[in-house]
Amino acid sequence: MSRSAPGSPWTPLRHPVFRMLWFAWMTANLCMWMNDATAAWLMTSLSGEPVMVALVQAASTLPVFLLGLASGALADIVDRRRYFIFTQVWVASVATLLCIVALSGSLTPLALLLLTFLNGIGLAMRWPVFAALVPELVPRLELGKALALNGVAMNGARVIGPIIAGAIIATAGGAWVFLLNAALSVLVALALVRWKRDSKVSSLPAERFFGAMRVGFQYCQQSPEFQGLLLRSMSFFLFSVAGIALLPLVAKQLPGGNAGTYTLLLATMGGGAILGALLLPRIRQLLNRDQVAQYGALINALATLCLALAPNLWLALPALLVSGLTWLATANSISISVQLSLPDWVRARGMSMYQMAMMGGTAGGAALWGQVASLTDIRTSLTVAALSAVLVLLLVRRISLESAVARDLTPDLYWTIPALSVPVEPHREPVMVQIEYSIDPARADDFVILMQESRRNRLRNGALSWELFQDAAIPGRFVEYFVDGSWVEHMRQHERVTAHDKAIWKRKRSFHIGDEPPTVSHFIARRVKR
C-alpha cells in the first residue's frame, strides 16, 4: 500500500525553481478564479437564466476538452519554459480585450461566453505544460506533496480571487478585474523569462506535431490502467461540479443573498480545499490513494446533498467546507496516480488527456446540471447530482489507482543501436523490425499470452503496427515484427524503453530455447514504381 513520505507538507518549497513556479502557478490561478467569478456574476446581470450562468463554467473549461491533446503534444515537443510564457501572454491579451469590451458597454451574454472561451484556451495550453514540469523539479517521494501544494495554490487563489474580484466589482466594476488579470499575467510571464531551465537534450530532432498527437493518443489507447484513471476522473468531476457551477444561483436564493454571499460561499469552498491539502500527509499515513478517492467522492456527494437542502447561509457554509476538502483530496489522489503512471517523454500529452477528462466532465456537468436546474429548480438539480454521484461511484470503485502506477518507468536504454550498411532517409522510409524466437511448442500458448503485453508496449511507444507469426512447418518458430514510421521514429523507441520494457524482454527471452539469442533484423522500406 502506497504512502506519501512523512514530514511537513511544505517540504517541496525548499527547491528554488519549484518555489518560483509555485508562486507563478498561484498567480495564474488567482487570475483564473477572478475571471471566472467576475464572469459568472456579470452573467447573472446580463441573463437570469440558470443555464446561461452555468454555461460560463462550461465555456471556461470546454477548450481544455477540445484542445487538450494538441496542447500536450506541443508541450512535449517544444521548450516548455517558452511555451509557458506564451500561454501567459495569451491570457493577458484576452483579459485586456475583456476589459475593453466591458468598459465600452457592449458586453452581451454571447460576447461574455465567447471571451470566456478564449480565456479557457489559455488554461488549456497552460495546464499540461505546468503539470509536466513538476516531476522535473522535486524528488519522486515529494511529488504527492508538490501536487497538494499546487492544490493549495489553486484553492488559495479560489479564496483570495473572488474576494478581490468582489471588492473590485463593488467599488469600480467588473472591467477592472479583467485589467488586473492582464497585469498579473504579464508579471508571471516576466518571472518565467528569468528562469534558465536545464532541459534534456536529445540527439534526435523534435517530434512532428501530428505525429506527436498520434503517439499520445496511441499511448492512451494501449494503456488500460491509464484509461481507468481517465474514467475515474471524468466520473468524479461530472457530478462534483454541480455545486460550484450553480453556486451563484445558490447564493442569490439564500436569504439576503448578494455578491458578498457568493464570495463567502466560494471562499469557504476554497478554504476547505486548502485545509484538505494541509491534512493530506496525515491522511495518506492512514489511507491509500484508492481509499482516499472512494471516501472522498462519497463524502463530496453527501456535501452536495447537504448544500441542496440547506435553508440558510450558516448550514450551506459547512457543506461547502467539506465539499472543498473532499474535492481536493479526491482530485489529488487521481492526479498523483496519473503523474506516476506516465514516462517523461509523453507526460504532457498524458496529463493533457487527464485534463481533457477532468474538464470534459466539468464542462459537461456544468451544462447538464444547469439545464436540469432550468427545467426543475436548483435544489432538485443538486440532489440528483449527489445521488447520481453515489451510484456511479459504485460502478467505478473497482478501477484501482494503486495498480495504475505498478509499472517501473525508470529509463533503461538496454537496446543496442543497429548497424546500417544501406543509405537511410531519416524521416521518409518506414522501418520494420523482425525478431525470431525458437520456442518449446508445449509452451507456445503461454508465449502468445506474454506477447499480448509485448504488443501493447510496442504500440504504446509509437509503433505503427505489430504482428506475431508462427511458422506453419516448424511449430516452435515464432516471428515478432513491428513497423515504425521512419528511422528517426525507430530511434525514438530506443530512447523510450524503461525497466518495465526490459522486464518483459527478459520474460520473452526465457521462452527462447535456441543456442543463440533471438535474431533481430531491421528492414528499410524501398519504394517501387507502380
Overall description:
The protein is mostly helical. It folds into two domains: 11-196 and 206-405, Up-down Bundle (Growth Hormone, Chain: A); 431-524, 2-Layer Sandwich (Alpha-Beta Plaits), CATH 3.30.70.100. The protein has 17 helices and four strands. Strands 2-3-1-4 form a four-stranded antiparallel beta sheet. Helix 1 packs parallel to helix 5. The relative contact order is 0.12.
Write the SSE topology.
Blueprint: H1 16-46, H2 50-77, H3 80-104, H4 109-137, H5 143-171, H6 174-194, H7 209-221, H8 224-245, H9 247-253, H10 259-286, H11 289-309, H12 313-340, H13 347-375, H14 378-396, E1 431-438, H15 444-460, E2 465-470, E3 477-484, H16 487-496, H17 499-511, E4 519-524
Antiparallel strand pairs: 1-3, 1-4, 2-3
Helix pairs in contact: 1-2, 1-4, 1-5, 1-6, 2-4, 2-7, 2-13, 3-4, 3-6, 4-13, 5-6, 5-10, 5-12, 8-11, 8-12, 8-13, 8-14, 9-10, 10-12, 11-12, 11-14, 13-14, 15-17
- Give the fraction of residues assigned to helices: 55-70%
- CATH class of the largest domain, please? Mainly Alpha
Shape: elongated
Helix segment tally: 17
Outline the biggest β-sheet.
4 strands, antiparallel
Task: Summarize, please.
The protein is mostly helical and 530 residues long.
Question: Which characteristics define this entry?
Answer:
530 residues; mainly alpha; Growth Hormone, Chain: A; 4-stranded antiparallel sheet; 17 helices
